[in-house]
Amino acid sequence: MPGSSLWLLPPKSHPLNSILTTCIQKASSHFSSPHLFTPHITLTSSIPSSVHSPDPQNWLDSLPLFGDPPTSVEVNFTHLESQDAFFKKLYISILKEEGLIAIAKRTRRCVPGWEDEGEAERWAVEEWVPHLSLLYHNCPKISIEEIEKVKQMVMDAGVSFTWNDDLSGWTGGRVVLVPTDRPIEEWEPIAEREI
């Protein structure tokens, strides 16, 4: 993946951090994938390192992530889904609500070529698909039967798909900057900001 990415993670103390990590480990093992990664929702990608250098933390802290008045960022899980794409082989679909769209639009504007507010908003509304990947793999799209097996495994781990349940998503969280132009096993945040 070219450049760096901005990811949304659960709050540090949220139990979903460890639960979702376990789900990724189990899904990777079940489908024989070598790829393990931090549970996240990609807000935007393709950020050249020159944009956030030499001080990634200062750059992240300076981003205008919220409008006036600020909009709450709510993450709500809906269902499991699979696509042919490597990074969307198996994922939890996320309800596309106002706060998520707003922060996706604002982060997209830091990508060269997307500075225009109207274009960034169009992208966030029409193109961006919020999701939390559980599996990166070169295998074919996952069958409905296998998705049901993984859904049970995910629910057994504690994830809920019932809204208003503490384990069906989170409020707020952390935005992290990750150099995703490196190999997947080196994807670690280089800056973090609580929201």
From TrEMBL:
GO terms for biological process: cyclic nucleotide metabolic process. It comes from the Eukaryota. One of its GO terms (molecular function) is 2',3'-cyclic-nucleotide 3'-phosphodiesterase activity. Pfam families: CPDase (PF07823). InterPro entries: Cyclic-nucl_3Pdiesterase, Cyclic_Pdiesterase. This is 2',3'-cyclic-nucleotide 3'-phosphodiesterase. It comes from Westerdykella ornata. The lineage of its organism: Eukaryota, Fungi, Dikarya, Ascomycota, Pezizomycotina.
